[in-house]
Amino acid sequence: MSFINNLKFNDDGLIPAIIQEEGTGRVLMMAWMNADSIRDTIETGKTHFWSRSRQKYWMKGESSGNTQQVKDVAYDCDGDTLLIQVEQIGAACHEGYKSCFFRSVKEDAGVVTEERLVDPEELYGKKS
Question: At a CB cut-off of 8 Å and minimum separation 6, what does 17 contact?
Fold first, then answer.
């Protein structure tokens, strides 16, 4: 995995990763990765990330079961952003939506633009 040497991580050793649904091109989420999570993502075929808020390494779907099957990993011309194409199983968002980008700022109202797939209280036993 020598390509990792071509990547530009920030001062915390992290790089942003855009997660996109293969086939539709829909952006599902953005998360942070470190070198270990990149390696594990490629080796297992499941996405792994670093949570800055929880200071924790995690695999997408480890608690919810809503996993991402990796189809392709690419990086941009500057080597400072990853694009990971996946097959999304269930909701990508911890709030129960297919995508984390389910609000539109049309008319400055923060309008919800899609149907919630699952209630987070059912998954996690608490409100998100």
Answer: 30, 31, 32, 33, 47, 49, 81, 82, 83, 84
